Amino acid sequence: MSSSWINTRAWLLMLPLLIVMVAVIGWPLIDTVRLSFTDAKLVGTSGNFVGFDNYLKMLSNSGFQRAFLTTTWFAVISVTAEMVVGVAAALLLNQQFYGRTVLRALMILPWALPTVVNATLWRLIYNPEYGALNAALTQIGLLDAYRSWLGEPGTALAALILADTWKNFPLVALIALAALQAVPRDITSAAMVDGAGAWSRFRFVILPYLAGPLMVALVLRTIEAFKVFDIIWVMTRGGPANSTRTLSILVYQEAFSFQRAGSGASLALMVTLMVTVLAAIYATVIRKTAGAN
Amino acid sequence: MERRSLTATIFIHAFALLLAAVIVAPVIWLFVMSISSTADLTAKPLHWWPETVDLSRYTRLLTAVANTEGAAFVAALFNSLRVAGMATIAALLVAIPSAWAVSRTPTVGWSLYAVIATYMLPPVALAVPLYMALAALGLLNTVYGLALVYLTILAPFTTWLLKSGFDSIPREIESAAMMDGARLDQILRLITLPLAAPVMATAALFAFLLAWDEFFYALLFTSDLRAKTLTVAIADLAGGRVSDYGLIATAGVLAALPPVLIGLFMQRALISGLTQGGVKG
């Protein structure tokens, strides 16, 4: 068979996928770009060309700047917490102890719980009048009076981050555990014979094996955290006083609650730009990891 | 295994216990809430285990009596099954031929990276035009429209998963059959696809779960019993004026049951998929 026929055949086989991708991803993305230069409404008027108006207004808007900071803060804190707790859990799960197999199996639970169910569960736990957190803290004596964890701007974002971390650290732990199991036993034993302490064994022997997979997990989790919508919408809808309003929530409000499709589209593209930068980092990391192996 | 001091052993078991508690406690609490009476849930100090076990909420949610929470929940359950089912089948139909083509034709491999890249796109970047298009086509608030939109997520994901599945089936088997005079469709139907059955099943399950968990598009594109999915129904319950917290918890338990069971049983396939994705990209 000639190679040109093999190539043509490959494209023919990919045609259905390509048509679907153009219809549901390619065209909408291009149309979002077009809309971002108009003052279109979600329903009714198709809008007029307004140039860079939407972008200029957005960049000088304090709501956007605040949402950007909230998103960054949410992503940095929750991802850092997930990585630290995840690696610690993986190191623990790599030890011998009773019930290890069961505990490893249980790690899948938070990951398998649908995000909306997780958000609902934590919303109930944080309930100001009857929530389990208030009850537990009061009963141990750490808290004098019940608090509205999601109702106060000072605690709402932290409460969200805790709920998000609980759901996502097991994934990091499972990835790190798989990497740990690839570390040859003789190397760690040899390091121990040479007198390396626990920390230097982790830092110089084990960490190099973890670095690649952890970098990938870090970047993927950061991208996910930057796009965060579901957990925040279900738990706080961006409140109280916009203290948990992230970029995706802001786009939702602008484009769908206020029906301003044009400026909503320009906001959405800013989020896309940020995610693309993170994805480019991801691609570089993958290439480096592949090269190292 | 290296020798460990007694203190270290005790430490490790203590931390393992702590980790187990952190993982399991919230999930158990969700279940306990679902079987506690309202009196137990609103008691101060809170009853951590109900004085009377109350299973009535499960019957209430799963019986479709008109204009009750049950009718809304059962409708949402069926909508979720239909949307996730249709989207999964459609995604596999377009993903199988392209994943095979990419796997066997390295020269078009770059197109796969373009497909995977779209998987990173935030849904907000597509939502406004998709909303307008669905409205124009009369597909807003229908299970078909939502299933179509879910292809934005499922098609790239399944293609990527199936491609690495096809990669692990030796081409030599196909070449041998070709030498013996088999046509391409015969090779695929009789040799490659049966060999790829396990990976196709895994891809189908993951695709189904992705659609089952999806919330953002479902929130935007559905508005009543005709198309609302479970995730939206639960968010409605949680955000509404329902004062029966046990009922919200029950809905959560029921919606979490399929993915949790699949997660526990498919652990091995899942973790190997995760780590492969981490290494291979």
TrEMBL record, chain A:
ABC transmembrane type-1 domain span: 68-282
Subcellular location: Cell membrane
Keywords per UniProt: Cell membrane, Membrane, Transmembrane, Transmembrane helix, Transport
Single GO BP term: transmembrane transport
Signal peptide limits: none
CDD domains found in the cross-reference section: TM_PBP2
UniProt cross-references to InterPro entries, sorted A to Z: MetI-like (IPR000515), MetI-like_sf (IPR035906)
Any GO CC annotation of this UniProt entry: plasma membrane
Segments traversing the membrane: 12-30, 67-93, 105-125, 156-183, 204-223, 265-285
Membrane topology: Multi-pass membrane protein
One matching Pfam family: BPD_transp_1
Family per similarity comment: Belongs to the binding-protein-dependent transport system permease family.
Name this polypeptide is given: ABC transporter permease
High-level lineage: Bacteria, Pseudomonadati, Pseudomonadota, Alphaproteobacteria, Hyphomicrobiales
TrEMBL record, chain B:
Chief place of localization: membrane
InterPro entries associated with the record: BP-dep_ABC_trans_perm, MetI-like, MetI-like_sf
Cellular localization per UniProt: Cell membrane
GO term, biological process aspect, one: transmembrane transport
Entry keywords, A to Z: Cell membrane, Membrane, Transmembrane, Transmembrane helix, Transport
Transmembrane stretches, start-end: 12-32, 83-103, 110-137, 143-162, 187-212, 245-266
GO cellular component term of the entry, any: plasma membrane
Signal peptide: none
PANTHER family noted in UniProt: INNER MEMBRANE ABC TRANSPORTER PERMEASE PROTEIN YCJP (PTHR32243:SF18), MALTOSE TRANSPORT SYSTEM PERMEASE-RELATED (PTHR32243)
Family: Belongs to the binding-protein-dependent transport system permease family.
Record protein name field: Carbohydrate ABC transporter permease
